Amino acid sequence: MSSPIIFGHKCSLIPRIAVFDSGVGGLLILKPLLLSYSAHYIYLADATNMPYGNKSPQEITALTLRAITFLESYKPDLIIIACFTATAIALADLQKKISTPLLGMIELVAPYAVKATRNNQIGVLSTRATANSYKITQAIQALNPTLTTIEQACPLLASAIENRHSLNKILQLIKKYIAPLQEAKVDTILLGCTHYEALREVISGCLNKQITLIGAADTIEQTVRSLPYLSNPQTTNSINNLELQLIITGSVKSTLYTNFLKKNLPNLRVTLLRFSHKNPF
């Protein structure tokens, strides 16, 4: 039997999927995949250099290229860039240099935000680098140029989540960042950073009830399902035998990652690999 092919790329019958993020946020994108598809999964968190969203475009591109090049050594069939900042700043350049198929976050969520809005007003919560790139606005307006998009940078929010700041401090940040969007009367808000998925219920509780939240965790499963080579739906047996290779750079406590995985995926077996701050890859 011949191997499936994606974009001219041969894939093993059990695909190998790598997921990259600057921290813990991408685990919320990984979870629905682990529960939906039989695959060999690798997750890389570049916690040493987190947050990406406050860095220069040149630094973001260099860091992302280094991380994706490292993941290519695992010979994955697909690399998911579960970081909106890396997607916005580096994806176009990466697609010229990386042979492995790449899936970014913006292409996942933009169509859903366009479909969800009723009054043609879409708000975006994202990092400073993502907001300054206007890549989410460009993706939305490419689908429907009549829509208005308001991008709100949230420079402190991802770090507050990763560093487990108090709920009170996080609530103060959320209320500050969503205020301009609510004043603009948006009816849809796109979570333009995967870290924010961890705060979905908190953010929702601060919004008018008429506002719809859209995030990559809502859309990743359906998007990946459309890829022709992922024809390995999970069975009851395979769900009880989930495995993940978890790679973390820097000195961040791995329990932040492993505790999340144990809580949400109790049957998951995790192999942890650490890289030092001085030599991440």
Question: Could you please describe the fold and organization of this structure?
Answer:
- The structure is a single chain.
- The N terminus is likely disordered.
- Helices cover 42% and strands 20% of the residues.
- The strands form three sheets. It has a six-stranded parallel beta sheet, sandwiched between helices. A four-stranded parallel beta sheet has the order 8-7-9-10, sandwiched between helices. Strands 1-2 form a two-stranded antiparallel ribbon.
- By secondary structure, the chain is of the alpha/beta class.
- Strand 3, helix 1 and strand 4 form a beta-alpha-beta unit.
- The chain has twelve helices and twelve strands.
- It folds into two domains: 145 residues, Rossmann fold (3-Layer(aba) Sandwich), CATH 3.40.50.1860; 111 residues, 3-Layer(aba) Sandwich (Rossmann fold), CATH 3.40.50.1860.
Annotate the secondary structure layout:
Blueprint: E1 5-6, E2 9-10, E3 16-21, H1 27-34, E4 40-45, H2 57-72, E5 78-81, H3 84-97, E6 102-103, H4 106-116, E7 121-126, H5 128-133, H6 135-143, E8 148-153, H7 157-162, H8 167-183, E9 188-192, H9 200-206, E10 212-214, H10 216-225, H11 236-239, E11 243-249, H12 255-264, E12 269-275
Parallel strand pairs: 3-4, 3-5, 4-11, 5-6, 7-8, 7-9, 9-10, 11-12
Antiparallel strand pairs: 1-2
Feature tags:
281 residues; alpha/beta; Rossmann fold; 2 domains; 6-stranded parallel sheet; 4-stranded parallel sheet; 12 strands; globular
Kindly state the percentage of residues in helix: 40-55%
Distance between the termini: 36 Å
Largest sheet: 6 strands, parallel
CATH architecture call of the largest domain: 3-Layer(aba) Sandwich
Q: Quick check: average pLDDT? A: 87
Strand content: 15-25%
Going by helix content, strand content and strand pairing, the class is: alpha/beta
Strand line-up across the major sheet: 6-5-3-4-11-12
